[in-house]
Design goal:
The protein is built from 13 helices and 2 strands. The longest helix has 18 residues. A two-stranded antiparallel ribbon has the order 1-2. The chain is globular and about 55 Å long. By secondary structure, it is an all-alpha fold. The site of one 2-acetamido-2-deoxy-beta-D-glucopyranose has 6 residues, from helix 9. One 2-acetamido-2-deoxy-beta-D-glucopyranose binds next to loops.
Length: 358
């Protein structure tokens, strides 16, 4: 793939003809999970947390998701994004899964929820039911969300890695305001991203690697039409802009397009080739190439997929441990979308809490 900006517009029209990639056979191979230089595991989490209480946990999740993704590969991106939203708002505590009420508007009701796809939210509770039917109510929705995020990456062609487990589920709602304050907007510049993710302990390499999650999935017109109208963003390739204008003829169009124009359903490093060719969809994507502080990292990831995968695993492992509840904090929900105290089916439930972890 050509890396030079000058060749981008000539190659763009042919890229539009690339058919969506089918899921590669990647996940049938017995790849070794990445172990190298992953960040420290926070107190209370462990990679063998469910070794005796739910030994089949990871195979139940992976096998179910293989079937789900075979029917709808879009759910992989949706699940990865739910994991990100969960962790960035109030920590990885499954607060993102709670249904809100008038009195308690939840994260789901805040505007960035736009593509928290309902079918992916349902998949998480389906996984919870499968796991609880096998092991009892011992595994949290927060851990299931983290494992689903990992499997979304791996089953789309990305790296496999071990996930520290033992998260507990929140009994508090994240407010609409904390949701808005903690999720970066697509119009964010590198300045804003380095600042807001810096306060969460992510460095420039982490920011560029995490943004690489946009190698899969889709975005709505209103997340990027400010780059098209009234004036076209000069950092966007002109042929790319023209094709986006066909998808989003006005700022009011409700339509979606792929985040990675080269390999939209494959977790690979082509997102960085998009940026080098000025075909990043959001300002927050393209600015990683425009800004000199992050351009070199984008270039190196575009040339070296293994480097991207290694840095992604480090950053996403850090992300997956943000603000976790452990030990006897929080609870293990019997229903991912409701706190146990609010769950009117809970008392009738035949699923009983399993043996204590501590
Ligand atoms: C760095 C700041 C980030 C910004 C500004 C951002 C913004 C967005 C926006 C605006 C969308 C599309 C929403 C829509 O229009 O429907 C999106 C989609 C997505 N984001 Fe991000 N995001 C960021 C970081 C992340 C991270 C860290 C991850 C995961 C590790 C992630 C994973 C995804 C995925 C997979 C999708 C596609 C979802 C789908 O197809 O349903 N994003 N992001
Ligand atoms: C997203 O939030 C809007 C209100 O801002 C709400 O009407 C909608 O139901 C929410 N979507 C989901 C999937 O919860
Ligand atoms: C949420 O933010 C809005 C706008 O900044 C503000 O008017 C409102 O009072 C905040 N609500 C709460 C509950 O903090
Ligand atoms: C949505 O985008 C497709 C191309 O991706 C386009 O053919 C269609 O006309 C668009 N829909 C609207 C309402 O503009
Ligand atoms: C889970 O909780 C939600 C929200 O309270 C409720 O609508 C749903 O029916 C519950 N699901 C089950 C299986 O009890």
């Amino acid at each position: 793939m050509a890396l030079s900006v000058s060749r981008s517009s000539t190659s763009f029209s042919s890229l539009l003809l690339i058919p969506f990639l089918l899921l590669v056979s990647h996940y049938s191979s017995e790849a070794q999970p990445t172990e190298l230089s992953t960040p420290a595991i926070v107190k209370g989490l462990s990679r063998s947390f469910y070794k005796s209480s739910c030994p089949k946990l990871e195979s139940i999740v992976r096998n179910h998701l293989k079937k789900v993704f075979k029917k709808d590969i879009g759910q992989a991106a949706a699940l990865l994004r739910i994991f990100f939203h969960d962790c960035f708002v109030q920590g990885c505590d499954a607060s993102v899964l709670l249904d809100g009420s008038f009195a308690n508007p939840s994260e789901k009701e805040a505007p960035p929820n736009l593509t928290l796809r309902p079918d992916a939210l349902k998949t998480l509770d389906d996984l919870r039911a499968l796991v609880h039917n096998t092991c009892g109510r011992v595994v949290s929705c927060a851990d299931i969300t983290a494992l689903a995020g990992r499997d979304a990456v791996f089953l789309s062609g990305g790296p496999d890695y071990k996930v520290p487990l033992g998260r507990r589920d929140s009994v508090t709602f994240a407010t609409r305001n904390t949701t808005l304050a903690n999720l970066p907007a697509p119009a964010s510049t590198v300045d804003a991203l380095l600042l807001s993710l810096g306060t969460k302990n992510f460095d420039a390499t982490d920011v560029v690697a995490l943004s690489g999650a946009h190698t899969i999935g889709r975005g709505h017109c209103n997340s990027f039409t400010s780059r098209l109208y009234p004036t076209q963003d000069p950092t966007m390739d002109t042929a790319f802009a023209s094709s986006l204008k066909l998808t989003c003829p006005t700022t009011a169009t409700v339509n979606t397009t792929v985040l990675d124009v080269r390999t939209p359903n494959k977790f690979d490093n082509k997102y960085y080739a998009d940026l080098v060719n000025r075909q990043g969809l959001f300002t927050s994507d393209q600015d990683l190439f425009t800004d000199e502080r992050t351009r070199g990292i984008v270039m190196s990831f575009s040339k070296n997929q293994k480097l991207f995968f290694d840095k992604f695993v480090i950053a996403v492992t850090k992300m997956g441990q943000m603000g976790v509840l452990t030990g006897n904090q929080g609870e293990i929900r019997a229903n991912c979308s409701a706190r146990n105290s609010d769950n009117r089916f809970f008392l009738q439930s035949s699923v009983v809490e399993g043996w204590a972890q501590f």
